[in-house]
Prior knowledge:
Layout: E1 74-79, H1 100-103, H2 134-140, H3 142-160, H4 198-207, E2 209-218, H5 220-225, H6 238-255, E3 259-261, H7 265-273, E4 277-285, H8 294-303, E5 308-309, H9 327-337, E6 340-341, E7 352-353, H10 369-380, E8 384-386, H11 392-404, E9 410-415, H12 423-426, H13 434-443, E10 446-450, E11 458-459, H14 472-486, E12 490-493, H15 517-530, H16 539-542, H17 550-560, H18 565-568, H19 570-582, E13 600-601, H20 606-610, E14 615-616, E15 619-620, E16 631-632, E17 643-644, E18 654-656
Parallel strand pairs: 1-2, 2-4, 3-4, 5-8, 8-9, 9-10, 10-12
Antiparallel strand pairs: 6-7, 11-13, 14-15, 16-18, 17-18
Amino acid sequence: xxxxxxxxxxxxxxxxxxxxxxxxxxxxxxxxxxxxxxxxxxxxxxxxxxxxxxxxxxxxxxxxxxxxxxxxxxxxxxxxxxxxxxxxxxxxxxxxxxxxxxxxxxxxxxxxxxxxxxxxxxxxxxxxxxxxxxxxxxxxxxxxxxxxxxxxxxxxxxxxxxxxxxxxxxxxxxxxxxxxxxxxxxxxxxxxxxxxxxxxxxxxxxxxxxxxxxxxxxxxxxxxxxxxxxxxxxxxxxxxxxxxxxxxxxxxxxxxxxxxxxxxxxxxxxxxxxxxxxxxxxxxxxxxxxxxxxxxxxxxxxxxxxxxxxxxxxxxxxxxxxxxxxxxxxxxxxxxxxxxxxxxxxxxxxxxxxxxxxxxxxxxxxxxxxxxxxxxxxxxxxxxxxxxxxxxxxxxxxxxxxxxxxxxxxxxxxxxxxxxxxxxxxxxxxxxxxxxxxxxxxxxxxxxxxxxxxxxxxxxxxxxxxxxxxxxxxxxxxxxxxxxxxxxxxxxxxxxxxxxxxxxxxxxxxxxxxxxxxxxxxxxxxxxxxxxxxxxxxxxxxxxxxxxxxxxxxxxxxxxxxxxxxxxxxxxxxxxxxxxxxxxxxxxxxxxxxxxxxxxxxxxxxxxxxxxxxxxxxxxxxxxxxxxxxxxxxxxxxxxxxxxxxxxxxxxxxxxx
Length: 657
């Protein structure tokens, strides 16, 4: 198996200086901060706690006081390896174990289908709300009308269909093939097929992955949307799904000598030093611990190896408020509480469903009393809190507890930096603002950056041109903004098997496809002509298709010209963060007073950018952007200059010569 070149050891850190730690928390609301860009060449922040040896490269024993070299290896902070058991086991096709042909073999892809299919009658998912009829709700929120009248196949395609992708659910389109025919999947936009077969994880390990946070996941609302005959566990109990996944994770580790579940930070450091994969067990569930005795269940999962978890996922729960984002989850929240909010319109132009929001569309619910108790119980056990999906108020409440505990570290396992995203994406509370990254630095935490498919704004200080939207070039904008502007420690947040699309390719028919078709064609043309060339792997044309090509993203970033050393040693950031949680602290890890969110160029809207492209028959196109054999409307679209058999103004369409 191909071995990628690992980054060399980055040297000993300088002696750590003491910094007096004030009592002031970072501002709760702010739009910018000025100061020097970055403080370390690796993009991580050295600890300023003179009495602690938990900074990057510190002696984990805490006895000699001599710094150690940074651990070499990549950390991925969010993976749903056993996600086929999520949602009652009724959504994902393919298995983790077995040989490649059996694990990734062809699926039926037809009717009725054994996966990735929703019930035809979805109206019961809207709940029973006495004050509002379904008809009234449909008038306020058009998507509700689609859910009620469109049926499962329509909605399945709706949740899978994004710019540059035809989706892969419902009828599966061209996705019925499996091993050895990979035309349809795995590829970057597959949300219904296995992305973390054991062989793929082994590829990532061979390429340098050394810390993996395996998150047991489920969401009962989606489970209830699936046909009962497709479910392994039709009771749709999130914790039942979670426990199955945790058992599988432990079994997997026991059966493979190159991986071990880390139960302590010392375990994690030892495992990485032994050149093996440290598996950290986590949980992501909207109704984590259900309605029962949460402390007894916390002890149960702790005994199973869980050392981190998210108190909140997609919906508000007994522990706190969630950060709203996708409209589907707002409808799911409404099904639970029948709340219709008019302070801000997230779900439709007039209302927000489910969440009680303020005028800025921020969830007003923070940590509940039980949520604060859960956090304190986790800290007592040396566990790490994953703040991904927490509402902004919940993050503030969490930080107050961590501050009381001498800046106990926390992290976000899969985050988008708000300031570098497009304005539409950045408006979502689920994105991470600079002041949350500041809190992360002050506690000695880190951020897993989502390997996402979206277009981004451009970061002027990045050496990578933002000229292939949704690809590794877009990821580079976010990565460099976090590394240089925010100075925060960064790992990957792959979220594979997580019901979301991944980083798009720079080459092939779906290259650069996150914005609009004309731009995608011309950006793909520029990539072919000016490169840099592809890696020669699946990543080139299929993007972040599966776990086996995750580290190809880092290779591609390096080829594009950015500094990937922080990613290649991000395993050290994870271990160091955990060690800080396990040892005594005496204040902030880093004042983080040098945050710089300037230098972000927001691109014009699509309609304005589209005006830069030529037109024929009032049809906008990319000149010479269509390859031989691809569909065309007129000659000027084709690289060859000839569109064979095209009718007038592209009706019917032809084929590029």
